[in-house]
């Protein structure tokens, strides 16, 4: 291994984006952010690092083991490098923008850094983009953010989108209502996580009926909702179920072509969610495109929902766009003409010195066309 | 101070960008990167952190005191958070893209982080954007990057641009040619940095004549170049002078309206530059917009030039653009109509519930217009 190669090695999970991938990722990100913007969401941009105690407070707590720490030489306090922008945006919404009218619609896009990659996400630096809808508690708000994720991804050419909707707090609500003790709760949770219908059926009292019914009520939305409607649930759980049904109904109007599935008992990865939550998939792409759901923002526990999309998986789902063609401008090309060709949509590449064979030079610099006295000429493919 | 306010405090020199500043900064960045792209430069995106020894190698060495360090738990090696993207792009150009044809034109845009702010730049996180032109040593290449910086900034509406061109290595070249000892060199350097013509004039031998002449040859390009042409310089210094003159002449063709000034002996802030360098200003804005110049890239000392722009100062120079108007869509608005209005250029804000007084609701949510059955109606200003 020579030293030139060795020097270019990056830490595991970190990478250089090169042409043309770098411009592709940037244009996908721009497309998402533009979609959020034209739906009335407004951009905020928190810093890459902030005080650890703020970054890892509340909703941010789950990211503590994934967060790099830095000592701030100015304040002598510990800072964290953000591993997730959601807690930062919630902080902004509930502090600096506390006086703004609700609902408050915010979006963000930026890089996050994690101490270690996971099997599903080996990258330690990922671009994250998302929205937060703060101060709206209605099913309409839930449907708006899901439909927005759908529309934003669809605009980029992502097909075969599906959303899996869950109620990560419904199991706890039912357990509490049934007065189950801690061991019994853990048994229920574990059996549901394993989708172990036999273990649930063997449980005593109303547990088997309710949780068995919930476990059955999953899959494609129509079938799952019919099953959910059959269930007799305690009050708090029934309210969650009814919200899910309203949201699914609204989505069938708002997001034509979005496949909706339901998995009411799923809760993993929704540790800080407090109600209806969802995961976005492209059915042809490994891994989830993003996820979101209800949470309580800030010290005043303001009703909020939102989602995050991660560029590593989103990029696998977005078709590459045709790039603009490169036009070689021989040395001495009139600058007004050069400007005109750029305005007409060309990428121009200027010759820095006169060349005898401009076609060869253009091909060497990966230009598809050359500007000549006779107009624009295609470079022959070799 | 209540705890809500206290929690929102960020470390000194770091800040949240809020609406509408966040979208303004992003659109200015996008405008710069688009200008670089249509001039044939291709995007690269290095990671936020990399191994310290690579990040601070060569051209990166000057940033060592400004760079945050992190321990990588995977490799157990130290990493640095980038304080400047230029060394990263030079690394990419000379390692991963070593086999690509020259000249290689690359651009980048991203956030950099610094341990402490300075008096001129109190921000510790700044967005940086720039280009590198690798493998071209001609004055034409110098002129191309300066003219590109000018055109990119002009596209954004920056007026009153000026560039100050200097030759940070010419003083050393002359001192070496004259065989000055270390003390004499330091005396010359110190007098030139103070622009102390009297001290230079008092020096012995040819020193007074040459450096006195260089010190005089500064200011507006026409006058400075006339003075430079009068000077009798040793060979290496004469070559640098001749290049400067060629670049200024080329710029007078390429960048009509760019004010060019010359300060041949300026070298501060150009510690890793190896030839013609420049600083960009808006004459109405405090601080420099960016800077650049010649350097040697990679272990093979490849000829390179480029520039970096910093968003904190660039934003002070760019006029705010008119933002798109916000159109309130009452609850229940047909989704195809909503889509049509967005396509027509509106930002739409959807009502999440029916409202009796849609005009008041629209105004509350900072919409300028409402969609009604009679079409789009302006919200009266209060």
Task: Give an overview of the whole structure.
The structure is a homodimer of 382-residue chains. In chain A, strand 3 and strand 4 form a beta hairpin. The first copy, chain A, is α+β, with helices and mostly antiparallel strands and 382 residues long. Helices cover 37% and strands 21% of the residues of chain A. The first copy, chain A, is elongated. The N terminus of chain A is likely disordered. Chain A is built from 14 helices and 17 strands. Chain A folds into three domains: 172 residues, 2-Layer Sandwich (BirA Bifunctional Protein, domain 2), CATH 3.30.930; 97 residues, no CATH class; 53 residues. In chain A, strands 1, 5, 6, 7, 8, 9, 10, 11, 12 and 13 form a ten-stranded mixed sheet that branches. In chain A, strands 15-14-16-17 form a four-stranded mixed sheet, sandwiched between helices. The first copy, chain A, has a three-stranded antiparallel sheet with strand order 2-4-3. Chains A and B meet through helix 1, helix 2, strand 1, strand 2 and helix 4 of A and helix 1, helix 2, strand 1, strand 2 and helix 4 of B. Chains A, B: Heteromultimer composed of HisG and HisZ subunits. Homodimer. Chains A, B: It is found in: Cytoplasm. Chains A, B: GO terms for molecular function: glycosyltransferase activity; histidine-tRNA ligase activity.
């Amino acid at each position: 291994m020579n030293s030139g190669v060795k020097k270019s090695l990056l830490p595991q999970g970190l990478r250089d984006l090169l042409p043309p991938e770098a411009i592709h990722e940037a244009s996908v990100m721009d497309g998402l952010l533009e979609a959020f913007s034209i739906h009335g969401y407004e951009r905020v941009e928190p810093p890459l690092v902030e005080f650890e105690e703020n970054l890892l407070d509340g909703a941010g707590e789950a990211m503590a083991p994934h967060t790099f720490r830095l000592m701030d030489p100015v304040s002598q306090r510990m800072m964290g490098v953000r591993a997730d922008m959601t807690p930062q945006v919630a902080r902004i919404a509930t502090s600096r923008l506390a006086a703004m009218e609700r609902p408050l619609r915010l979006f963000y896009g930026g890089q996050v850094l994690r101490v270690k990659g996971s099997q599903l996400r080996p990258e330690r630096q990922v671009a994250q983009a998302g929205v937060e809808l703060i101060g709206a508690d209605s099913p309409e708000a839930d449907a708006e953010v899901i439909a927005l994720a759908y529309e934003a991804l669809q605009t980029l050419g992502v097909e075969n989108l599906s959303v899996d909707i869950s109620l990560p707090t419904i199991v706890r609500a039912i357990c509490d209502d049934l007065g189950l003790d801690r061991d019994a709760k853990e048994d229920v949770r574990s059996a549901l996580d394993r989708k172990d219908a036999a273990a649930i059926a063997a449980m005593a009292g109303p547990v088997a009926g309710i949780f068995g019914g919930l476990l059955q009520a999953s899959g494609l939305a129509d079938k799952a909702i019919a099953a959910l409607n059959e269930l007799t649930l305690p009050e708090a759980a029934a309210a969650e179920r009814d919200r899910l049904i309203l949201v699914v109904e609204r989505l069938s109007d708002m997001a034509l072509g979005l496949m909706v599935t339901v998995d009411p008992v799923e809760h993993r990865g929704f540790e800080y969610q407090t109600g209806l939550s969802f995961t976005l998939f492209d059915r042809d792409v490994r891994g989830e495109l993003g996820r979101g759901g209800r949470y309580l923002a800030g010290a005043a526990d303001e009703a909020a929902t939102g989602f995050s999309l991660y560029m590593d998986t989103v990029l696998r789902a977005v078709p590459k766009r045709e790039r603009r063609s490169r036009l070689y401008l021989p040395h001495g090309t009139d600058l007004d003409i050069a400007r005109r060709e750029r305005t007409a949509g060309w990428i121009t590449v200027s010759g820095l010195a006169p060349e005898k064979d401009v076609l060869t030079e253009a091909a060497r610099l990966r230009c598809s066309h050359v500007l000549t006295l006779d107009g624009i000429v295609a470079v022959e493919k070799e």
